[in-house]
Every structure is written in structure tokens, then in C-alpha cells.
């Protein structure tokens, strides 16, 4: 028996490959099928099942294309009812794969169709559980993502989750390995561990949601407390996973079209396309196409695209580092942004050589920023970190302006004012600056290095605010100001 976790850091997502006696299973695959097909070709195994733990909201799965390519059967647990052919397994049903067995455990709570899959080894011993978003390391799946699918409330789902954990998962042995669908960085839970797998016994000891003395009411209260609105693309991705989607190769071939500057500009105007610049942030600051938006490929690229570009069918044109256009298109498709029309051949250098106009955003070091603050030259500071980050420590003169909610809060700013923006590192603040710039804000300065470097400047200690406690009530109130 072979079990392999295939972890994708930018999405904090784990897919899984299981093989036994020449037969294989893939659980929760990403959108592109090539890596899985290459693995199958290398091992010579036949893919028997493609298992989906639930309708994912934070990425578009590759199950449909993979089934077409291999003839494997797509398997969901009870209550899924997608709009394409699948095998709907019953609670408690056992699937034979080579010399091992995978048992279906219906574990509703994160969503109603959520299921956990228990792997038993060749000797019949419980070996591992693939929990999807039912159980993470350090947390459980949020119970508010499926409430629009019917009359069920987040409290109802939390109650189902309590029952699922205690009836289906907690009775399993402590040495069973937990393989979740996500780790730290995912918005599918509140406080996921940076570890990507662990033992069930450890989770029983440290995971707040698995406390043995916790009542159902306490569980519901704790699991539903402090939930912020999910990113807007979550519901759209879940629907694509349920209804189906365009073939990935078609999406890739359309997006890989190289365009010279004239064709690029003409297509942007004709299709009202958004120009998405994914280069290094310093390169973007120095020169970029006017009205383009920066979301760097080397950061949390796909989740920020999904959070900030509200139309999932928005036509996109790409400005990318040399040789990385295919990577950009692939990562966009993972979160359902399939309408990429092409990329700028030759990059910004070709644009400049063609005599086209460029724009820039002032980028200053933390020391330069501190010197200007000390001289009284800075009137408006926008801290684009999350409310919880801001509450933990911030500049007294700063206003929290979270990137997550920029589209809803832009009207609070004055286009005639100059704004200095910072985040934790300079990545999110430059995204915010690019969006504001495209919306007509001309007086923007990004602080490179962000909070991590601002703290080490010669700003007076009295300029910093460092709260010692953050109650849930305080957090909820802070988040509520933006939603």
C-alpha cells in the first residue's frame, strides 16, 4: 500500500494518491490533470476511483477532467447529487482498492454532503482518515458555507458537525492518521495548524472541537463564533464543482495566446478585459500598464484573485514574468477564473519599446516612511492587514483598511488625499494601492517591507498600540466595521 499527500501551498490544499496491487485512488484532485496522469503512467497503476470529500468552495477540483481521461469512477458520499455521473456511496459502504478497503463515513456539518473516508490496510487495520473539511489539524470546517443551499442554518450545520465528529471520528483509534483537505492559510476554518497531517490521538488532546467534556451547545457556540464572511468566490467554486466546468486544456490553450502590445491593448479595450499584472511587486511599482491590477504570482495569488475580482467570468489579460504565463493560467483556473484571453508577449519591456504609456506607484522603505512620519509629513496611514492583525499591534495614527474588504470600503477614502499603505510585508498593501490607483486615487505610497520592518524603525514607542487582550467580542466588533 502506498499513500502520498500532494500538497499545494498557495491554496493550503492537500490531495491524496493511494495505490494498492495495481489499483489507485485519487482524493480531492486539483484542476489540472497532467500531474496525476504522469504519476499513473509512471507507476502503471489503474485509477479506479476519484473520491470527492464534498463540493469544495475554495478551489475547482479536477475530478471531471480526470474521469474523462482515465475512465475512473467519481465517488461522493451521501446527499451530494451533482449534475454529472457519479457513484453515490452509502454511509458505511466499503470500496475495495487492490488489497485495501476504503470505508465511507458520512460526516455532515461543514456541508451536508461532506464525507470522511477511512482507509484500512491489507491486514484490515484502520490506517488513516481523509477528512476533507470535516476535521483539520487544530480546527474543524466552518459550518456557514452551505447555508444558502436550503433552509439549514450555520447553527444547524454546527450541530450536525458535533454529531459527526463524536459518532464517526472520535471513536476511532488514536494511532489513525488524519489527512485533512487543508492546512494553515485556508479560509475553510478559523485557526488551522501549519502541519498538514497528524495522529487522531493528538487531535483529541489539542483540538478545541474534540474536547471530550464539550456539550453540543458549547460546540455550536465556539464553532460559529468569530466567523467572518467567506471570500465571494467560494459559492461560485462550489457551484462549478457541483454543476461541472469547461475542460482545463481548453482554458489553458485560450489563455496561452501570446499578444504583441498593439493586440494586447486592442483586446483589452474590445473585451473590457482586466489587465492582471503578476510580476514582482518592485517591478510593478516601477512601471506598469495604466489601470492594471497587481496580484503577485509569488504570494497567495489564487485566493486573492478570488477574493478581489468579483466577476468570475471577468475577461483577463496577463502581464507575467518570462516563461510563467502557463503557471498563471493554471492557478487562475484552480479558483474558477477560466476567461483568460492571452498574455503580453515580451512583458512590460515590449510595452515600453512600443512607446506605450506606463504608470508607477511610489514605493518607500520603512526607514523613509518613519522619517517622514517623524517630520510630520504623513497625514493618512492605511494598514491593510486583517482586523485581528491590526488589533494585535499597530501604529496609533493608522486606520485599519483591510484588503479583504477593499471593494466595500473604498468610498470611505478621499481621492484628493495622500495615503501611505502598509501590510505585513508590502504584498497586500501594493495590491490595495494598485486597485485604488485603477479607481482614480493618484496620491499613494506603498511601504515596502510592511509592519515587519516598520517595527524596527526609529518611530517613537508612543506611536505604537499593543493591546494585551483580544476578546471574541472585540474581534467581532472590529470585523463588523467592514462588512
UniProtKB/TrEMBL annotation:
<dbReference type="InterPro" id="IPR051682">
    <property type="entry name" value="Mito_Persulfide_Diox"/>
</dbReference>
<dbReference type="GO" id="GO:0006749">
    <property type="term" value="P:glutathione metabolic process"/>
</dbReference>
<keyword id="KW-0479">Metal-binding</keyword>
<protein>
    <submittedName>
        <fullName>MBL fold metallo-hydrolase</fullName>
    </submittedName>
</protein>
<dbReference type="InterPro" id="IPR044528">
    <property type="entry name" value="POD-like_MBL-fold"/>
</dbReference>
<dbReference type="InterPro" id="IPR036873">
    <property type="entry name" value="Rhodanese-like_dom_sf"/>
</dbReference>
<dbReference type="Pfam" id="PF00753">
    <property type="entry name" value="Lactamase_B"/>
</dbReference>
<dbReference type="GO" id="GO:0046872">
    <property type="term" value="F:metal ion binding"/>
</dbReference>
<dbReference type="Pfam" id="PF00581">
    <property type="entry name" value="Rhodanese"/>
</dbReference>
<feature type="domain" description="Rhodanese">
    <location>
        <begin position="269"/>
        <end position="360"/>
    </location>
</feature>
<dbReference type="GO" id="GO:0070813">
    <property type="term" value="P:hydrogen sulfide metabolic process"/>
</dbReference>
<dbReference type="GO" id="GO:0050313">
    <property type="term" value="F:sulfur dioxygenase activity"/>
</dbReference>
<dbReference type="InterPro" id="IPR036866">
    <property type="entry name" value="RibonucZ/Hydroxyglut_hydro"/>
</dbReference>
<dbReference type="InterPro" id="IPR001279">
    <property type="entry name" value="Metallo-B-lactamas"/>
</dbReference>
<feature type="domain" description="Rhodanese">
    <location>
        <begin position="381"/>
        <end position="463"/>
    </location>
</feature>
<dbReference type="InterPro" id="IPR001763">
    <property type="entry name" value="Rhodanese-like_dom"/>
</dbReference>
Amino acid at each position: 500500500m502506498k499513500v502520498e499527500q500532494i500538497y499545494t501551498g498557495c491554496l493550503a490544499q492537500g490531495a491524496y494518491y493511494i495505490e494498492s496491487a495495481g489499483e489507485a485512488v485519487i482524493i480531492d484532485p486539483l484542476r489540472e490533470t497532467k500531474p496525476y496522469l504522469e504519476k499513473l503512467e509512471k507507476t502503471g497503476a489503474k485509477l479506479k476511483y476519484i473520491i470527492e470529500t464534498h463540493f469544495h468552495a475554495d478551489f475547482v477540483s479536477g475530478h471531471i477532467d480526470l474521469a474523462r481521461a482515465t475512465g475512473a469512477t467519481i465517488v461522493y458520499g451521501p446527499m451530494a447529487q451533482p449534475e454529472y455521473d457519479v457513484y453515490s456511496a452509502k454511509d458505511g459502504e466499503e470500496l475495495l482498492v487492490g488489497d485495501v478497503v476504503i470505508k465511507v463515513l458520512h460526516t455532515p456539518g461543514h456541508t451536508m454532503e461532506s464525507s470522511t473516508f477511512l482507509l484500512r490496510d491489507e491486514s484490515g487495520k484502520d490506517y488513516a482518515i481523509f477528512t476533507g473539511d470535516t476535521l483539520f489539524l487544530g480546527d474543524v470546517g466552518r459550518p456557514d458555507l452551505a447555508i444558502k443551499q436550503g433552509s439549514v442554518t450555520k447553527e444547524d450545520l454546527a450541530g450536525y458537525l458535533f454529531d459527526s465528529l463524536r459518532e464517526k471520528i472520535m471513536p476511532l483509534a488514536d494511532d489513525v492518521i488524519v489527512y485533512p483537505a487543508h492546512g494553515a492559510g485556508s479560509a475553510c476554518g478559523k485557526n488551522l495548524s501549519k502541519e498538514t497531517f497528524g495522529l487522531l490521538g493528538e487531535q483529541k488532546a489539542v483540538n478545541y472541537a474534540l474536547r471530550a467534556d464539550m456539550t453540543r451547545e458549547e460546540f455550536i457556540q465556539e464553532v460559529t463564533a468569530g466567523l467572518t464572511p467567506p471570500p465571494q468566490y467560494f459559492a461560485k467554486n462550489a457551484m462549478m464543482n457541483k454543476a461541472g466546468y469547461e475542460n482545463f486544456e481548453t482554458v489553458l490553450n485560450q489563455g496561452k495566446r501570446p499578444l504583441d502590445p498593439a493586440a494586447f491593448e486592442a483586446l483589452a479595450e474590445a473585451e473590457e478585459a482586466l489587465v492582471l499584472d503578476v510580476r514582482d511587486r518592485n517591478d510593478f511599482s516601477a512601471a506598469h500598464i495604466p489601470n492594471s491590477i497587481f496580484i503577485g504570482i509569488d504570494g497567495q495569488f489564487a485566493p486573492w484573485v478570488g477574493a478581489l475580482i468579483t466577476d468570475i467570468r471577468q475577461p483577463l489579460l496577463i502581464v507575467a514574468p518570462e516563461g510563467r504565463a502557463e503557471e498563471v493560467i493554471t492557478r487562475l483556473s484552480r479558483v474558477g477564473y477560466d476567461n483568460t484571453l492571452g498574455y503580453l508577449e515580451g512583458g512590460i519591456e515590449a510595452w515600453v519599446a512600443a512607446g506605450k504609456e506606463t504608470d508607477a506607484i511610489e514605493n518607500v522603505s520603512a526607514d523613509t516612511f518613519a522619517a517622514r512620519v517623524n517630520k510630520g509629513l504623513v497625514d493618512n496611514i492605511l494598514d491593510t492587514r486583517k482586523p485581528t492583525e491590526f488589533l494585535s499591534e499597530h501604529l496609533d495614527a493608522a486606520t485599519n483598511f483591510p484588503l479583504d474588504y477593499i471593494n466595500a470600503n473604498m468610498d470611505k477614502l478621499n481621492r484628493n488625499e495622500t495615503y501611505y499603505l502598509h501590510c505585513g510585508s508590502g504584498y497586500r498593501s501594493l495590491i490595495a494601492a494598485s486597485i485604488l490607483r485603477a479607481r482614480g486615487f493618484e496620491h499613494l505610497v506603498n511601504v515596502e517591507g510592511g509592519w515587519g520592518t516598520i517595527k524596527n524603525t526609529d518611530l517613537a514607542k508612543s506611536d505604537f498600540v499593543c493591546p494585551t487582550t483580544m476578546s471574541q467580542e472585540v474581534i467581532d466588533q472590529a470585523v463588523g466595521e467592514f462588512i
